[in-house]
């Protein structure tokens, strides 16, 4: 019973061609996160939404944008993918923030840039 | 900001042996320390966590210990099985309301039958 669902599992895009990754959740959690994970590295937080409030990490490139049209869905838009953006992109949710709200991850979308 | 160091980066054990993974953190205000297991092609899954008011927590074959004074915490897996093979990440959460997780770099555990 997947509770954080990411589509597609694998995405191939061309250099410079915009791409959108999607995430949906059935947990009714307030917070949704996008992480980038490169091979053999830790997940790196790009940004998160607390309800409709968007919070961008200071070192997230402008090339990455996000939308959260409703509680259940969140999108990651990469405006002009470069070869360095090839990675696993992980969506996560939490009920709130802080130590009483563990993160729940989806299975990720692996992005390839050709 | 918070910095989390994790060791070792790879660990190979024989089935039935114990495995220990250690992490240190830098921010004394951090108050939540989860451990995630990531299998190939999947997202990280929470396996156990500990809060700063507790020194040890156990769940079947998995235990976590926390030493706040030394700012380190460890994952212990006893009686390892081949299905324990995965990448394990420790993480620390700061004490502020944002509560963003900072991950260690991961440990690739291989359990040989």
Secondary-structure element pattern of chain A, one letter each: EEEEEEEEEEE
Q: What structural category do the secondary elements of chain A indicate?
A: mainly beta
Strand residue content of chain B: over 45%
Largest interface, C-beta closer than 8 angstroms, per-chain residues: A-B, 23 and 25 residues
Distance between the termini of chain A: 33 Å
Structural classification of chain B: mainly beta
Query: On the 0-100 scale, what is the average pLDDT of chain A?
Result: 93
Briefly summarize what is shown.
The complex is a heterodimer of chains A (114) and B (113). By secondary structure, chain A is mainly beta.
Explained architecture:
The complex is a heterodimer of chains A (114) and B (113). By secondary structure, chain A is mainly β. Helices cover 0% and strands 51% of the residues of chain A. Chain A has strands spanning 4-7, 10-13, 19-25, 31-37, 44-50, 53-56, 64-67, 73-78, 87-94, 104-105, 109-113. In chain A, strands 2, 4, 5, 6, 9, 10 and 11 form a seven-stranded mixed sheet that branches. In chain A, 34% of the residues are buried. Chain B is an all-beta fold. The termini of chain B are far apart. The interface between A and B is medium-sized, with 23 and 25 residues.
Which terms summarize this structure?
heterodimer, A: 114 residues, mainly beta, 4-stranded antiparallel β-sheet, globular, B: 113 residues, 6-stranded mixed β-sheet, 5-stranded antiparallel β-sheet, 11 strands, 56% strand
Secondary-structure map with pairings?
The complex is a heterodimer of chains A (114) and B (113).
Chain A: E1 4-7, E2 10-13, E3 19-25, E4 31-37, E5 44-50, E6 53-56, E7 64-67, E8 73-78, E9 87-94, E10 104-105, E11 109-113
Parallel strand pairs in A: 2-11
Antiparallel strand pairs in A: 1-3, 3-8, 4-5, 4-9, 5-6, 7-8, 9-10, 9-11
Chain B: E1 4-7, E2 10-14, E3 19-25, E4 32-38, E5 45-51, E6 56-59, E7 62-67, E8 72-77, E9 86-93, E10 101-103, E11 107-112
Parallel strand pairs in B: 2-11
Antiparallel strand pairs in B: 1-3, 3-8, 4-5, 4-9, 6-7, 7-8, 9-10, 9-11
